[in-house]
Amino acid sequence: MKIFISHSSQDAVYAESIVKFLINIGVKREQILCSSVDGCGIRLGANIPETIRKEFLENDIYAIMLLSENYYASAICLNEMGAAWIAAKEQLAILLPGFKHEQIRGVVDANDIYMKLDANNVTERLLDFHDLIREKFEIKEHLSYRDLHHIIKEFSESISVRPDNISINLSNSRPLCIGEDDSVGCTHAIGQISEKSVTYIVDYAK
Prior knowledge:
globular, 34% helix, five-stranded parallel sheet
């Protein structure tokens, strides 16, 4: 059995993160088909639709569809969705950040939606996903809880949607933001944001 990651090329960063997660939990690189990741079954310069068609004919395929607006805007992705619905041994869909259930169209059933990457329960779903894939592919190598926690944390950070900057208006606050005009408050742009907090230094003396 092979895993086929059906995705838009514009969502390659998510496909790459999924592939890395799969490899980290024990799936072999040669068991993965992903056009956005080198060494995953599709050679550089190869005819991608023909390569995928051949793989569907020669192997049992576990299709994972990464649904987004980019996905539905791509004729190739919609063809892959149809092929997966007809020929894949099993399939599931993952909703990428910002894409909602009500935006789902085509042959994908609501029951095929395995997880939404920006949902509050994504960590629990990733744990279930880990169990599912290891069972399907009969992966026997032991993976400690600590290692699994690290893999999930790394994956979550890689797909997190973070703005390039955050504006915080302090016009109703007494303190003056350093470097800004007195009394009118300020707006600061932050380039680096930690996972759980944003830290500001405010000058209370002025």
